[in-house]
Design goal:
Alpha-Beta Plaits; globular; four-stranded antiparallel sheet; about 90 residues
């Protein structure tokens, strides 16, 4: 398994409960595919330097996990299909 770090930005219109549910859903994608979530750390609401999909602010979240490359690809696919995620970034940590 490889170590990954994913930072993603959620739409602020979700609210706290819905944001938590989205974070849990993405962690479940990793766990359901034989991965291990090490940490999920919400940064809170931040203002953007420029508009992103018509929004001026978003909720930043960082998730560190260990998984196979196929699991990371599935998580990336799930995030790209979700309307709740404004942007995501995946990094492989050695």
């Amino acid at each position: 398994m490889r170590n990954y770090e994913c930072t993603y930005i959620l739409d602020t219109r979700l609210g706290d409960d819905a944001s938590t549910a989205v974070m849990e859903r993405f962690a479940a994608v990793v766990n359901d595919n034989q991965g291990e979530v090490r940490q999920v750390k919400p940064w809170g609401k931040r203002r953007f330097a420029y508009e992103l999909k018509g929004r001026r602010e978003g909720v930043y979240v960082t998730m560190q996990f260990a998984a196979e490359p196929d699991t990371m690809a599935e998580l990336r696919r799930q995030m790209s299909l979700s309307d709740d995620v404004l942007r995501s970034l995946f990094l492989a940590n050695n």
